[in-house]
Structures are given as structure tokens and as C-alpha cells.
């Protein structure tokens, strides 16, 4: 029921019109718009998962959501009604989160195994750091763990290259949400 209601009301709430208004004069079909709405709901659910992230065991669920969102976003990317700043920013944010998740589960997996016993790494969550808690200057100072311990742990246990890769992924995410000044 919630889905059907959203299907009818979301275009009006989000875009100020009905499906017909969105289709007329655009390069979209009703199926494209339907896909976009479904994808929007999946993106919203993904965002909730990220914000409620509590541990590394949830990464598979996040990765599965990323795969679903990537697949559905291909179906409406050509539609002019979805090419405005708010949609593009949400889409970019989700993509960067997904790149970070992919990085953590693939490229960084060996380093993660080595850091299994690290208290600093165990207490650090890349998603917790993105919850908008940056009104506190201390939260930004501890973006990479207490007293920046993550950099020391990763360079000592893994490599400088692993640290740089993680740092670059986190910078991309932070630059998009513009929460902290990180060097």
C-alpha cells in the first residue's frame, strides 16, 4: 500500500506534477519514471541503512543495496526530469558510499584482516562519521579514529599505499557532504 501511495504521490511531491506532466515534453516513458521512483525509494532505504550502521557485519547488506541501486539508476539516467541538482547530489552521494563499500570489501579486504585485532580500527566506522555529527569540532578531529590512530595503524600494519587509498575514498565522500576540513 505504501508503495502504491508513493507511486501516485511522489511525482507530485518531488517534482510538482503528475506522471503525465513529467512525461509530456520529456524523453522519459512512464516505465522510466516508475523505475526512478523505485530507485529513489531504494536509495532512501540505503541511506537509512548507512545511518544506522553499527558494524562490519552489515557491509554485505549495504553492498547488495549498492548493486540494486546501480542497476535501477541505469534505467532513468537519460531522463531530463531527473537531471537537477538535488537528484544529482543524492545520486553522487550514494555512488561514493557504494565506492567506499566496494573498496572496503575488495581492495582493502586483506588490510582489514590484518587490522582485525586493532582497537582503533575496530572502533572506527566510516559511516558513523558521516551522520552529520560534525557540529562538534572534536568529531572532525577524530574523523580517522581517536587522535588519528587509523593512519598510524594502517601504515604500520598494512602499507602507506593502503592508507592513501582509504584516505582518498574518505576525502571523496567528505568533499561531497562537506562536513569536515580534512587534510
Automatic annotation (TrEMBL):
The keyword Signal applies. It comes from the Eukaryota. Keywords: Signal. Residues 1-16 form the signal peptide. It holds the Pfam family DUF19. Residues 28-180 form the T20D4.11-like domain. PANTHER family: DUF19 DOMAIN-CONTAINING PROTEIN-RELATED, DUF19 DOMAIN-CONTAINING PROTEIN-RELATED-RELATED. This is DUF19 domain-containing protein. It comes from Caenorhabditis tropicalis. The lineage of its organism: Eukaryota, Metazoa, Ecdysozoa, Nematoda, Chromadorea.
Amino acid at each position: 500500500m505504501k508503495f502504491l501511495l508513493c507511486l501516485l504521490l511522489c511525482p507530485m511531491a518531488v517534482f510538482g506534477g503528475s506522471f503525465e506532466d513529467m512525461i509530456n515534453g520529456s524523453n522519459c516513458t512512464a516505465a522510466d519514471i516508475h523505475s526512478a521512483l523505485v530507485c529513489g525509494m531504494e536509495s532512501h532505504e540505503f541511506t537509512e541503512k548507512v545511518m544506522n550502521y553499527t558494524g562490519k557485519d552489515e557491509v554485505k547488506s549495504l553492498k547488495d543495496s549498492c548493486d540494486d541501486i546501480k542497476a535501477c539508476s541505469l534505467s532513468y539516467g537519460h531522463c531530463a526530469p531527473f537531471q537537477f541538482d538535488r537528484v544529482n547530489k543524492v545520486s553522487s552521494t550514494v555512488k561514493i558510499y557504494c565506492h567506499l563499500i566496494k573498496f572496503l570489501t575488495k581492495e582493502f579486504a586483506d588490510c582489514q584482516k590484518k587490522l582485525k585485532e586493532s582497537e582503533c580500527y575496530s572502533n572506527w566506522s566510516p559511516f558513523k562519521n558521516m551522520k552529520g555529527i560534525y557540529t562538534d569540532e572534536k568529531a572532525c578531529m577524530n574523523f580517522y579514529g581517536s587522535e588519528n590512530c587509523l593512519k598510524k595503524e594502517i601504515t604500520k600494519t598494512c602499507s602507506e599505499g593502503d592508507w592513501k587509498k582509504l584516505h582518498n575514498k574518505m576525502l571523496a565522500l567528505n568533499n561531497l557532504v562537506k562536513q569536515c576540513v580534512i587534510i
